[in-house]
Amino acid sequence: MLFALVILPIVPDLDVVTFQLGISYSDPLGHRGFTHSIAFALLAAALATWFVCPGRSAVRDRLLVYAVLFFATISHGILDAFTDAGLGVGFLIPFDDARYFAPWRPIMTSPLSIGAFFDGPALRILANEFVYIGVPSLLFLTSILALRRRYRIDG
């Protein structure tokens, strides 16, 4: 499960290989297209759940695992919608090719190449992501742990 939770939020950006295949950024299969969609997150979560949960697992357990893995996958596209560049996110591909951004876009966009990232604004981008992603995530997790401790929720 931990492996799936680490990998699934990264998988959507494997779409950068489409540039090498001659597929344009704006294509439904291009960057921030299908692999950032709700449909892709549903499929990826289903496949990962099949690997994570043995066939004899209770339906309730499989559904919970599926929900967690779906949200881990779709979180990537949601966060990309808050970035300050690009063409938007194709949340509804393959049903609608439109790209969407959030109304507030405070997250700095990373360059698409590793070299450009490290040769350029790496520290500024990481600091920005810490402020807008890291701090809220830590506050959320701390709140969940405090609530579990307060109400002694086991799980």
The unreliable regions are none
How many helical stretches?
6
Kindly name the structural category: mainly alpha
Give the termini separation: 14 Å
Morphology: globular
Provide the succession of SSEs. Answer: HHHHHH
Largest sheet at a glance?
Answer: none
Description:
With 155 residues, this protein is mainly alpha-helical. Helix content is 54%, strand content 0%. It is built from six helices and no strands. It has helices spanning 2-7, 17-20, 38-52, 59-80, 114-119, 122-151. α3 runs antiparallel to α4 (59-80).
Topology:
Elements: H1 2-7, H2 17-20, H3 38-52, H4 59-80, H5 114-119, H6 122-151
Helix pairs in contact: 3-4
